[in-house]
Amino acid sequence: MINWRVRFANKSFWLSFIPALLLLVQVVAALFGFELELEGAAARLLDVVNALFAVLALLGVVNDPTTAGAADSERAMGYERPAEGGK
Description:
About 55% of the residues lie in helices and about 0% in strands. It is mostly helical.
């Protein structure tokens, strides 16, 4: 189980979730034929932004690094707000 209420209150969650969501929207839009047709420097800039978004998403959208698997620990499930200093 995941303590979503506390995750949604965490700035780091949003810093990784929003870029992941934007990448997903871009891929789904491409499936339906909507693509940004950029050339030259603008296309390279889009590649850099996409790579940055991927790295931010990899920082951990739903993974609690203090536990095995994808669920939160029992301690984390009892939180009312994110723990200070990552503890």
